[in-house]
Every structure is written in structure tokens, then in C-alpha cells.
Design goal:
The protein is α+β, with helices and mostly antiparallel strands and 192 residues long. It has two domains: 9-81 and 128-187, no CATH class; 84-122, no CATH class. The protein has six helices and seven strands. Strands 1, 2, 3, 4, 5, 6 and 7 form a seven-stranded antiparallel beta sheet that branches. Helix 2 packs across helix 3 (107-124). The relative contact order is 0.21. The model is unreliable at 62-66 (pLDDT under 50).
């Protein structure tokens, strides 16, 4: 976590679940092997060992400086990426092998062939594994997601909301202002 290019997205939750509930949710949404036909698989994993299929321990750090209890874990994203050039090459090869004129093939037939080739490629492709650190400061309803990639954040928010039956939202300057100022002050804020 002490990388000089560290990027953090901060989220807030509406509920404060108890520790046992958090542990159960994390364990219930742990590693599940990606199936051959799946392109993406998301899960929660152990902070210290994101490739282990079990959580060793849910780690809770107690801080005396007012931060409260923090649970740390990883959000793991397994994605199968299909190279378009390989797919194009396989399409040309398939057409030659089956005596199909590439220039005169209708769009529907072309899409069918490409879709089948894509599906076959997904089946044999190994996923790229991305493990992203998460700190959940549950007493203050704050989540720190150590990644700013929009696609990764979208996967995380969707999965977290589904797993925790929650609706987390990113902490942006206006949200921070709502937490600090009263309603009268907030109503006077105008966009620049």
C-alpha cells in the first residue's frame, strides 16, 4: 500500500453492519473458480493472500487515534481479455478453411462466426487476475478502495452493493460539504 503512485477512491455506506455480519458476507463471497464460459468473476479475498480460497482471518485493526475499527481485505477481479487481432486472424482462417468469401459474407453470418469464435476463445483463455486492496472503516461507514480505474470501481461498487445489500456512494467534494455544513449553507453553494 505504500506505493508512490497510490490511488484511492473513498466511498460511504448508509448502514453500519456488525462485525459478524461483515465476516459472513466476506466469507460467503470469497473465491469461486471462474468457469470456462465466464469472462469476468469478482470476489472478496484475504488481504494477505488473495489467491487463497479461504479467508485466513478477518483482520481488524484497532486504532486509538479515533479512526475506529478497520477491516482490510482484497477485491479480486478475474477478467478474460480476448485480443481482437487474434480473433480477426481466426476469423480469416475459419473463412479460408470453409471456403467463405470474406468480402461477400452477409453481416449476420459474419457476426455469428465471430461470436462463436469469441465464445471458443473465452473458454480457453486464462483470466488476468487483479487484486485490489480495500479498507472498511465500518464504524464511520467509510470504505477506501485502492484503485481509481473506472471499470474496476464499477465492478467493486456493483459487487459490494449486491453482497452487502447496500448502496455505497463515492465521496466527492459536494458530499463532504453536506457532512460538514448545515442545510442553509449547502443551499447557497452554486456551480462555477
Amino acid at each position: 500500500m505504500l506505493d508512490k503512485t497510490l490511488q484511492i477512491t473513498k466511498y460511504k455506506t448508509k448502514k453500519i453492519p456488525n462485525l459478524e455480519t461483515i465476516e459472513n458476507i466476506l466469507r460467503d463471497n470469497g473465491i469461486v473458480k471462474i468457469q470456462p464460459e465466464e469472462e469476468v468473476k469478482v470476489m472478496f479475498t484475504d488481504f494477505d493472500d488473495p489467491y487463497n480460497d479461504k479467508f485466513n482471518d478477518i483482520i481488524i485493526n484497532m486504532y486509538g487515534d479515533g479512526l475506529g475499527d478497520i477491516i482490510r481485505f482484497n477485491f479480486r477481479l478475474d477478467i478474460k481479455k480476448i485480443n481482437k487481432n487474434i480473433l480477426k486472424h481466426k476469423f480469416v482462417k475459419y473463412c479460408k478453411a470453409n471456403n467463405i468469401d470474406i468480402k461477400n459474407i452477409n453481416k449476420q453470418r459474419k457476426n455469428e462466426i465471430i461470436e462463436n469464435l469469441y465464445f471458443n476463445e473465452v473458454k480457453i483463455t486464462q483470466p488476468e487476475i487483479k487484486s485490489i486492496e480495500v479498507l472498511y472503516q465500518f464504524n464511520t461507514q467509510t470504505i477506501y478502495f485502492f484503485n481509481n480505474n473506472k471499470k474496476h470501481n464499477d465492478f467493486f461498487v456493483d459487487f459490494f452493493n449486491k453482497a452487502f445489500d447496500e448502496n455505497i456512494y463515492p465521496v466527492i467534494p459536494f458530499i463532504l460539504a453536506e457532512e460538514v455544513f448545515d442545510e442553509n449553507t449547502i443551499s447557497t453553494i452554486k456551480p462555477i
